[in-house]
Structure to design on (78 residues):
């Protein structure tokens, strides 16, 4: 009495390539382009520093802090 188990189906990649987040340092994968688009909003929110006085936005927190001084009057010598 011999039982032959047929295992070993070839591993095939699932249909539809995963969508990879293009942000450097992230690389999150999503199977739906929709989900990736949603996720991208996270990055645009994180990367921009917006002045809540005038609405100007900066890529670096540093730049925003320097800019804020123009509103608070702590302007360093120029
Ligand atoms: Zn990402
Ligand atoms: Zn401002």
């Amino acid at each position: 009495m011999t039982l032959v188990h047929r295992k070993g189906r070839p591993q095939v990649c699932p249909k539809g390539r995963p969508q990879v987040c293009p942000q450097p340092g992230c690389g999150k994968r999503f199977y739906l382009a929709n989900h990736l688009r949603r996720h991208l909003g996270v990055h645009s929110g994180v990367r921009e520093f917006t002045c809540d006085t005038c609405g100007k936005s900066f890529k670096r927190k540093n730049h925003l802090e320097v800019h804020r001084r123009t509103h608070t009057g702590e302007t360093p010598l120029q």
About this structure: Helices lie at 33-47, 61-72. Residues 48-78 form one domain.
